[in-house]
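seq as requested:
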Amino acid sequence: MPRSVPTTADHSLDFALLQQSVSRQPARNRRAFWWLLGLLALLVASVVTLLLYLNSFEADEAARRRAADAQWLEQSVQFHFRRLEDDLLALARQASSPAPQAGRQQQPQGGLLSLEPGVLLDQGWLVAGQSGRAGTPARWSTDAAANPANVLAQQTMQATTQGLRRAAFAGVMLHADGTPTDVVWLAVPFFDRGQFVGNYVAAVSLQRALDALVPVWFSQDHRVRLVADDAAATSTGYRVALNLPGADLFVQVDRTQAERTTVPRVFFWVALLFLLGMLVALFALRRDFVKRRQVQALLQAQVALRTAMENSVTTGLRAWDLQGHILYVNDAFTRLVGFSANELLGLKMPFPYWPPDQHDFLVQVHEGIIARGTSDNGVEVQFAHRDGHLIDVLIHESPLTTASGEQIGWMSSVLDISERKRAQRMAAQQQERLEASGRLVAVGEVASTLAHELNQPLGALSSFANGLLNRLADGNITLTELLPVVQRMARLADRAGGIIRRVNDFARRRELTRQRLDLVAFLTRVLTARSDGDGPPVQWHAPELPVWVEADDLLLEHLVNNLVGNAQDWAPQGASPPQVWIDLCEDRVQGVAALSVADTGPGVSEDAVSSIFNAFVSRKVGGMGMGLAICRSIVEAHHGRLDVGRDPALGGARFTVYLPLAHQSA
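struct tokens:
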């Protein structure tokens, strides 16, 4: 027969539905011999059962203590780190003040981590967009130089603080060899009238912080250490997540002393004596036997209930039977939907916290839960608060079973994800704005490329035109002399038009006009055209055999002119007489042609190597910062690469272009 559904008044927190009926012992009209054998078997079974129960009780008690210790340690760590963030925010407010008081000291105001020696290794104020100026902590630059991963972590932390308007962590910092340290960076942003001013950053030694946070009474029985992974804890310990935004770190807690089990063992011997006494007081205790079994069944039911609750997310909790009646709700759930427990207990679908326009959908969802449960990802639905506003929630379900394993319903954990949904929508909007900004940057790069590449032919056209006008005005030019000048101006105009077409095609990601090209003849022609220019002459020895590549000759000419012109500009700034060398060779093993341009200039410093090919980065006075960026784009468009180093002979910069060799024709 199906189990009848109790009314609202019949529901109570002891979950009487989970109790099992207790069968009566048919003990009448038995002989004394069988009574004695039965009592002996009962005694042995009771002792074994009690021993197993005590072992289980000890394990559950140890797990409870570990959970309590972990929760305490996690809350303590988060509290003190929040206090540290408050201290750094005060320092950020003080550092951003335009007129600081004379002699004012930037000191924390009371947090344990701020005052404990050795916890804050370094700290300082980073103004927005000016991280390399005065005031930057020395350790900030040291950690950035130690490992490229540290730079990425620091940049991500700063982007997080500015984008999400909250404190963030970066770490752990790595040594040069990749081994981790115990240091993380904490950045606290400061906003003035909605505008991002900067970050106050501090290098925190986590090990020293743990030493300061863990009290003596806790360290007497536990060993606390910092770990950087979430592997399973040992049998005698457990791991606690620090929950520091931007740093996935855990604390391993291991017990150093064995847990005392005196009380359960004493209870075992007392219970054993009690069971032995059952032989003497059998008839006196027989009336209480059924009641004892009922109490035991109730205890097992409560343990089963608590186990089901622990298997679900402990936010909003709701228990309901297989017919859809609500059996239990906790305070978090009532606050979530705005209805009291008395108003919800015993109700059946549709529930009052369902949006009116989603009743059919939610009925299908709950019927699917009854049939199949939920997946590991849960089910996302919407609830309606009592005041009418909608709430996005994530529901996880675990079976609600009796002590015998029979399922009678489901235990739900309901998590409010409205804020996460709002953050996702904001992130999508932000991504759209970033894509729009990217398109604007691309337009700017194309415009800068055109300005940079057209500068030379237009300047030459202007020079020829002015010279021609001057000679025409003076009347000292003949038609024979005029014809080469006009032809040269026409070629320069065609060249400028070709530049515009090539840059336009390159900006639209179209295929380049590639053809089989001999680099020896190509370089001879380009360098001959530059022979009458300013700067030191270019020296090079042409290889005897041709070097064939497939390339766009116009873009390749831009590449060579930019590299040679750059070398001629920097060569006179070195200590030795200015020289520019070009070397061309081919490596058939790797299938590339190597074109090198070297000079006697000061060279490229190690700090500038990482950014020398970036757009709008220039070391020349009045430079646009697009020359080398265009060179790299041209080389990458030809599936090659561009490297920079120091020339061993001239001592200056050496730029090497690697281009794939052309396939030999059959």
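Residues 1-14, 20-29, 101-106 have pLDDT under 50 and may be disordered.
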